[in-house]
Design brief:
By secondary structure, this protein is an all-alpha fold. The chain is built from seven helices and no strands. α2 crosses α3. The longest helix is centred in the C-terminal third of the chain and has 17 residues. The mean pLDDT is 87.
């Protein structure tokens, strides 16, 4: 498998924006300089595995999300939803589950 620095950088940028962070704040959180983060996000610099692992751990995202690897045919969005679900307080999970179930029943996927 060839690692595509631009795709990984785009995913890092996506995680940063989802968390509503500037490059400076995000870079500090993952122990990088803003300049280095910018080069990673733009795909101009190869991203060391340790950096990918650090970002994945810090933001509770599986490493395979950055590498574009799916598990058991799941899409990247499905993987992300699972990780967000795991971050929800256990008492709230049941409500989230019910809401998604109702949405699926009300708006089924058209094939």
């Amino acid at each position: 498998m060839v690692i595509d620095n631009e795709k990984i950088g785009h995913k890092i940028c996506e995680i940063r924006k989802l968390n509503k962070m500037t490059q400076i704040v995000f870079a500090r959180k993952v122990h990088l300089t803003q300049q280095t983060l910018s080069r990673y996000e733009n795909g101009k610099t190869p991203i060391p595995n340790e950096v990918i692992e650090n970002i994945a751990n810090e933001f509770n995202v599986p490493v395979n999300y950055f590498l574009g690897i799916t598990i058991d045919g799941m899409t990247e969005d499905e993987n992300r939803l699972i990780n967000y679900y795991r971050e929800i307080h256990p008492r709230v999970r049941e409500s989230v589950f019910k809401i998604i179930k109702l949405m699926a029943e009300e708006f089924p996927k058209k094939n």
